[in-house]
Amino acid sequence: MRLGAWRVALRIARRDALRAKGRSALIAAMIALPVLGVTGADVVHRSGQLTPAERVQRVVGGADALVTSLAPGTPVEQAPIAEDGAFTVPARPGDKPTAEQEKGASTDPAALVAALLPPGSALTPARPGPEAGADSPEGLVRTLTTEADLGDPIWRGRLDLVEGRAPSAPHEVAVTRAFLDRSGLKTGATTTLQGLERTTYTITGVVEHPSELGRVELVARPGELIEPLNTALAAGGPVAEKPSATRSGWLVRLPSGASLDWAAVQRFNAHGYTLTARSVAIAPPPEQAVPYYRDAYRYHDPTAANNTKMVVAVVSGMALLEIALLAGPAFAVGARRSRRQLALLGAAGGSRAHVGAVVLGGGVVLGATGAVVGVVLGTAVVALLRPRIEQFGGVRFGHFAVPPLDLLAIAGIGLFTALLAAALPALQAARRSVTAGLTGRDTVRAPSRLVTFAGLGLLVLGAVLAMYGAGAVKRDQPGAGGYDTRTLTVLGGSVTAEIGLLLCTPMLVALIGRAAGRLPLGPRLALRDAARHRSRTAPAVAAVMAAVAGAVAIGVYSTSTDAEDRRDYRPQAPYGAVQLMTYVDGPRLTEERAELEKQLSGLGPRGDLGQVEYRFCDNCSSVVQLQGPPERRGLGSPPHIAAGDVTVLHNLFAVHDPAAEQALAAGKLLVFDRSLVGADGKAVMVLRGGGGAPLQPGEVPKPDVQEVPVDAVLVDNPAAADFAQGLALPSALPALGLTSRPSGSVWLPATPPDRKAQQRAAAAAVRLDRFATLEVERGYQPTGDALSLALTGFAALVVLGAAGIATGLAAADSRQDQATLAAVGAPPRIRRSMAGLQCTLIALLGALLGAVNGFVPAVGLLKSRASGFGAKPALITAPWGELLLIVLVLPVVAGLLAALFTRSRIPLGRRLS
């Protein structure tokens, strides 16, 4: 066709779009929505890609460089910006330390850094302090600590004050927003730190790390926090477990005219230090001059980027498929509504190409409109929601990026999708005869058997391929894109099966129409109308099927994985049990127990728990274990024997057996695993370490491993065996040459305490013993799956949307038939029932096919994961709640909504002679 003919076609398409505003807006919206989403994602991604100047600003702030003592005395390799990657280089056997290594290991770090920098450089310490515990209304909050003069511009860009004022007086601090959210405190509130309880700190401002918004940190003035905390830690006070980092760091201001190059970075690396210099980051050396890039493959996961690319490709392809399937029927209905106009074009001398060009022109007009609107709205939404997006992602944008080439490509994809959706309706319109178009009578063609048989073949082939990949293909064979051959085979088979079902959809719709003869008038008309207009019904069914298949696949995989995790979960105590684990003894332990019972009411009787040990010399002991069959060693119950009384038997092992209680009170050893007790009723204790005990004159050395048989009472309780091999009364141990080391207490309340109460009680315990832990056994806790939830919601939206769109198009397309029914006396409710039943049919058929198809990849991947060495059998579990919602509830809801919003009466149309 010539360019002039395309101009005419586009003009006709534009006028037709303006004439049918509702249908045009629907198609444009379907194109615009995914374009909006992809545009928003691209703008967010590009805005988060920092330029070298922005990246180094977040590392060095307003300084010229940052020096960090990574491993003084050990050579280091780093990226031009050390925070992007750095590691130590292990010495080879026989290598002698270089002069730089000896100097780096023996010289004071601050003096060495000053010597390696240009003369006149100024150093500002920038080192992290120890992790600490801060008091709050909710209990104890773990926080990082550091020191900084927030009034100095050298920190801007690295650590920014965003609210309040900088600390300016002793014992004033600034904290991050995450600290306030976790602690429940506000600006102006006070807090104390463990180990420094006599000092009260006042919060004066809120700071943030632009690249780590979720960081929980407390910032004090230089010299006021880190050293006091380290002193308390060294003295054994109840502060945090250890410093968050031991590296020293300095922000560097260079004298006027001085600069740092890559050679300076390598000098620091030779001494065991990293150097991030602004000048090097902005103008980095070539990659071949950076040893880090040569050796970093040892620490790099090549599949991480591929995973992101795979997800983006799948989501984009799925969106493209959904739009084409949903927008295609809209173009087809538009072409049928304009068939008289198109037939007049043909009667006036227009060729089939001209008729098809008019329909394709509608795709160009509406696709371009939707693409432009989507790009503009996507950019505007990101600009409007920028603060929330940054907070959710935990990183500030470097700048607001609007990449023109990216947005042009996204708009082009939207336009291409519209053309793809309009291609088949354009072909059908071009093939329609002029006579049929002028009279408004379309011929109904039977679905192609060849296409149906091809679909069945692809369905069987895909299912077989997926199962073969799961069971027969070897694991870890290299494939494409960082994925092994097994995974690619399973996914390839699943996609093939889904394409097969798509090809079978028109025949399924036709078969349902044939089965409608015995139904009442309304359902019969609805099913036959859906079957007659398969070009409108089948794509909607396919769109529902594709969306439901993805949601079901993720749902089955997530639910089955969760079931396997639940199967493999090993509780530490009966459900609801409260366990205090501590390493102190005597009055401090008594005080801890009393404090916990004060904090947590209704705990019930307390069982004091210990661990049976073999003490073979002063300050020398080992854990006593029971000997089991060789095939069970290293498996099963925890390898130790608990020490406690009848209350421990009740609270920890949930055993309420009078015979077992009497045996324990009599000093007998209770054993909970049948395999640990011999036929003679004895269990064998394994005592280790005796061979290392110092000997007295004339004393015979003991063997390093001793096996001591003891009388045992079997309490065959596999659940109790999960907590310990056995239980012994502490007073009965000296007769066996053994001792008991207190390890805490256990309670079994009627209901477990809530998490806030647990947090407050844990804070009280840590104040008395910094190594104490308080655990509440809450059973297996399934993790929420955001992807599964999102896909289920997406599938529900597509089920309702696709069914509603197809029903609306059917109502618009069948007005003449509806008018004929009204003219011959059909009741008004027939139109409502037809709309509701058609909508239910589309949603139900698509959901059923999608549910069946979704099991194929999920089962294949689960069996693939469970076929490795030592793997347990795969558990195939369906998310019945989601399936019930998608397969049954949503189709009914869609049908009811369609019937509710469908008008019962329509005006009579014109009659054809």
From TrEMBL:
Highest taxon of the lineage: Bacteria
UniProt membrane topology term: Multi-pass membrane protein
Keywords: Cell membrane, Membrane, Transmembrane, Transmembrane helix
Signal peptide: none
Ranges of residues in domain ABC3 transporter permease C-terminal: 315-433
Keyword DNA repair: no
GO cellular component, one term: plasma membrane
Thylakoid as UniProt keyword: no
Biased composition (Basic and acidic residues): 93-105
UniProt region (Disordered), positions on chain: 88-107
Subcellular location: Cell membrane
Regions that span the bilayer: 310-334, 355-385, 405-429, 450-470, 490-516, 537-557, 786-812, 839-860, 880-901
Protein name per UniProt: ABC transporter permease
